[in-house]
Amino acid sequence: MINILKSILLRYSLVNHNRFLSSSMEFLFEKCWKCQREIDRFECTTHCPCEKNVLLPVKREIDYFRLFHLPKSFELDVNLLTKAFRTKMKLLHPDLFANKSSEDQQYSQDQSSYLNEAYSTLHSPLERALYLLKLENIIFEETTTTLDPDFLMKIMEMNEELADDKTIKHFPTNLAIEIRQEMDSLLKQLSNTLHKMDLPKAKELVGKLNYYTNLDDKIKSLELKHGIL
Ligand SMILES: [Zn+2]
């Protein structure tokens, strides 16, 4: 059924090359630069299925989730993401196109950097949440997000504790545990609010997670200093 509908839409798209939207499906038709075949870029995100399996130019309308054919959700299987990233990277790495045409070389460079950008964004929970908010046209700015004073006080105290000379001699184990537990709890809450599309709440949680990510970075560098990692 979907295939029939697609072929009708494909014919429609020959007249109208714009993005075609329907309530349940979305397509982005384009002609392959090499074989001239009409393809849906939301399906063929990096390659044309023509016999030469050619690389296509980057299309920013293809969001990072679509690029890897993963559901647009905060709950993401990071193993699947990594697997999809490696599979795609193997097919479009610039080394493979060193002796190909200038178009091939250019597209492989562009696609590799788009793929890297997408992978690192989706891999980090904070970046992934920010990206999901961005897809909903909500741009997170630290300065416009007001957080309660108690929270900010707590963060300040934790930062002071980490800046203390004591941490040079003794790794702050309890604080590290507390910070990571808070991060886990914030990530769970964020997952729920994004699932419910409670965007103002999600924005607040992203703000909090931002502070905890900074604290966690400090913990990580202390772990390195103390030879824990
Ligand atoms: Zn083609």
Automatic annotation (TrEMBL):
Question: GO BP, one example?
Answer: protein complex oligomerization
One GO cellular component this record assigns the protein to is: mitochondrion
Location of the J domain: 63-135
Instruction: Identify the domain of life.
Output: Eukaryota
Sorted UniProt keywords: Chaperone
Give the GO molecular function terms: ATPase activator activity; protein-folding chaperone binding
Q: State the Pfam families in the record.
A: HSCB_C (PF07743)
Q: Which family does it belong to?
A: Belongs to the HscB family.
Q: What is this protein called?
A: J domain-containing protein
Whose protein is this, by species?
A: Didymodactylos carnosus
Q: What is the lineage of its organism?
A: Eukaryota, Metazoa, Spiralia, Gnathifera, Rotifera
